[in-house]
Design goal:
Strand content: 5-15%
InterPro entries: Aldolase_TIM (IPR013785), TAL/FSA (IPR001585), Transaldolase_AS (IPR018225)
GO molecular function, one term: transaldolase activity
Strand order of the largest sheet: 1-2-3-4-5-6-7-8
Structural class: alpha/beta
Keywords: Kinase, Schiff base, Transferase
EC number: 2.2.1.2
Number of helices: 15
Protein name: Transaldolase
Largest sheet: 8 strands, parallel, barrel
Radius of gyration: 19 Å
Order of helices and strands: HEHEHHHEHEHEHEHHEHEHHHH
């Protein structure tokens, strides 16, 4: 039994790819995409027919009230998602425009739009996870969407502060980022007795289990195979193809690394009643605050690059859009 097969005994493995052939190879239940993976698909000649088809369709007004650029992006994301759902038996995570990360009302509206596009393709909303950044506004949007049975994957989670707020909102799933958190500690020369990413996952497991919270934990952002093996036992993990391939090639033993560790008393219940409380708490965690802000911006750049490629915009327009987004987001955090 190879390491991937062994790992599946402890955690649900999710493929972090939009490549259909790789999904067939790894045979995972679920798949995740993000703006970078969608951009990669747009640059892949194999997806050119899909891109051209959606670009042509986006020229037709669909009565959504959205401009062509948004209709195209939503159409391309859901078309790729629909293709992937023909391969996998489970769920696909589809990310919203990251520029909406600080706008609760428009996040809800855009998520409803994406779900409507999936449902027009005959795909149940139960197979879709709408990926939203775990900002305060994103978490509040997820709270509203979950009431409408639109399930959410709150991503860019770097702290128990965010994880607690996501569970309070009854989000279906969260994605704590292991590799990026480790990178931050390393690049800032912050000493840590063990992996900060693993410590974060363990603390969330303890908090959620101790308070009987149903939000699923999907570990994400892995830099190497050892990081993946270090969180064996978490509910789910989304793993890039290169690491999945390494796991398939090794028969070394895999053991469970994470499980609930009871404490007496259990960790105190964390509640945030407003944006100010949440941001004040988050600002105390410099790594989480910086990484959330940076993650939203990186996804925004990939999203804007997709638009530039599809509409053959000049690079100066892309640079202006990226700069405008950075200024706007800097004012929100």
């Amino acid at each position: 039994m190879n390491q991937l097969e062994q790992l599946k005994q402890y955690s649900e493995i999710v493929a972090d790819t939009g490549d259909i052939q790789l999904l067939k190879l790894f045979q995972t239940r679920d798949a995740t995409t993000n703006p970078k993976l969608i951009l990669d698909a747009a640059l892949n000649t194999g997806y050119q027919p899909i891109l051209n088809k959606i670009l042509a369709e986006s020229k037709q007004d669909d009565n959504s009230g959205y401009p062509q650029s948004i209709r195209f992006a939503a159409g391309f994301i859901t078309e790729i998602g629909a293709e992937l759902l023909q391969i996998i038996p489970g769920r696909i995570s589809s990310e919203l425009d990251p520029r909406l990360s600080f706008n609760t009302k428009e996040t809800v509206r855009r998520a409803q739009y994406l779900i409507s596009l999936y449902e027009k393709k005959g795909i149940s909303r139960n197979r879709i996870l709408i990926k939203i950044a775990a900002s305060w506004e994103g978490i509040k949007a997820a709270e509203e969407l979950e009431k409408q049975e639109i399930h959410c994957n709150l991503t860019l989670v770097f702290s128990l502060i965010q994880a607690a707020a996501c569970a309070q909102a009854k989000a279906t799933l969260i994605s704590p980022f292991v590799g990026r958190l480790n990178d931050y500690f390393s690049s800032h020369n912050i000493p840590s007795p063990q992996s900060p990413g693993v410590e974060l996952i363990q603390s969330i497991i303890n908090y959620y289990t101790g308070h009987s919270m149903s939000t699923e934990i999907m570990a994400a952002s892995f830099r190497d195979k050892q990081q993946v093996l270090s969180v064996a036992g978490v509910n789910l993990m989304t793993v890039p193809p290169d690491i999945l391939n390494e796991l398939m090639k090794s028969d070394d033993p895999v053991t469970r690394k994470l499980q609930y560790i009871a404490s007496n008393p259990e960790p105190a219940l964390i509640n945030y009643s407003n944006r100010e409380e949440f941001l004040q708490a988050l600002a105390q965690n410099k790594a989480a605050y910086a990484l959330l802000k940076d993650g939203i911006f990186k996804f925004t750049k990939a999203f804007l690059k997709l638009r530039q490629i599809a509409f053959q915009q000049p690079k100066i327009k892309l640079l202006f859009s990226v700069l405008s987004a950075k200024i706007s987001q800097s004012l929100k955090m």
